[in-house]
Amino acid sequence: MITRHAFEELFKRIENESRCHIQVLYGPRQTGKTTAARQLAKKTTQPFHIENADAIDPDSKEWILQQWQTARLLITTQGAKSAVLILDEIQKINNWSEQVKREWDADTANGIELKVVLLGSSRLMLQQGLTESLTGRFETIYVPHWSYSEMQELNDVSLEEYIFYGGYPGAATYYKDWRRWKRYINSAFIKTSIEKDILMLTRVDKPALLEKLFKIGSNFTGQILSYNKIKGQLQDAGNVTTLSHYLDLLDTAGLLAGLEKFTPNEVRKYSSSPKFQVQNNALFTAQQNLDFNAAIMKPIEWGRWVESAVGAHLYNASIEGGFEVSYWRERNNEVDFVIHDEDYSLGIEVKSGGEGYTKGMENFIKKFPNSKTLLVGHTGFPLEDFLKMDPRVALESIGGKVN
């Protein structure tokens, strides 16, 4: 077992700091949130109480209060200065944020040093609870999909295996059984994430449409498609606003993102066609008919896997990394990804073979003279090294000044 950065950050806040904010650990399924909470419970020097709301009646009005009272009692019975309360899958309880607010504020008023950690599988948890009732009372720690370095350390996967199978440690057992691996990813991750992290948390009038949008978007990862073109492939697609909303929901569940076009013009930015990007390459691979041995023998198809792996790496790092990921295209000129913040911008072109520096990179620099570019892969910065590094290092080291 390895310790992820999320655990290290959580332990530092709980063990070394006084009670100040509720700590919220969130991220996609199977990324190690519960494991991090259990590691905290084992390592902390403070009394702790940990419970999971997964099997609790969603309408229970007493469950949160009962857990809170149990944790408070630990301070009294053990003569401790503080204790830790950890509640997993908290979003399963209806009106959970109001109940948490009431108990947190009561402890604040009474000077009770009870430190609280909440865990949830979807960013919808933030949108439908934390920001409504708990503003100013919480901090977040995002737990992203597993990186190449972590998968290599944990399961000793090769670069090619990571690009093809993605970053789900629990699925590594099935690498040698292609059909079983596909079934496992589709049922344990995709279906569960859609049903429990989207449909149970928000109103979706056309759930079948949302599922079809995921399948189309994951199949076309790394490609730019207009919403009107997507509508042509879907029955009962509704309007563009509905599709855009459903794509946002898939994004919050850690499944599929729609990258926007890089442009200083905000209006054009938000009206641009999305570039689909799975957040874990397993989500793309599970929709394909090529197994591992067949895929790596087809250079053109393999190039899609490579580009998607780089995109997923960039996007996962961006969620709490303080930068954005976009794409750039004008006519026939394109740069695969652009990472940028208020100070720097860096165009990234991914090549698994063939030519190196492209016309797209050249014209990107002409369009944005202060930007810089980086070629990743063939004749450029080594792909393996790039997937092991924090993209912000590249942005701040070689990125061009925005102004």
Could you explain the architecture of this structure?
This protein has 403 residues and is of the alpha/beta class. It folds into two domains: 5-142, P-loop containing nucleotide triphosphate hydrolases (Rossmann fold); 148-401, no CATH class. It is built from 18 helices and twelve strands. It has helices at 5-16, 33-43, 63-77, 96-110, 124-133, 148-155, 159-165, 178-199, 207-219, 227-231, 240-252, 266-270, 281-285, 292-295, 299-318, 359-367, 383-388, 391-398; strands at residues 22-26, 48-52, 83-88, 114-120, 138-142, 256-261, 275-278, 324-330, 333-340, 344-351, 372-377, 400-401. The strands form two sheets. Strands 6, 7, 8, 9, 10, 11 and 12 form a seven-stranded mixed sheet that branches. It has a five-stranded parallel sheet with strand order 2-3-4-1-5, sandwiched between helices. Helix 1 (5-16) runs parallel beside helix 2 and helix 4 (96-110) crosses helix 5. The longest helix is centred in the middle third of the chain and has 22 residues, at 178-199. The protein is globular and about 70 Å long. It comes from Nonlabens dokdonensis. InterPro entries: AAA_14 (IPR041682), DUF4143 (IPR025420), P-loop_NTPase (IPR027417), Restrct_endonuc-II-like (IPR011335).
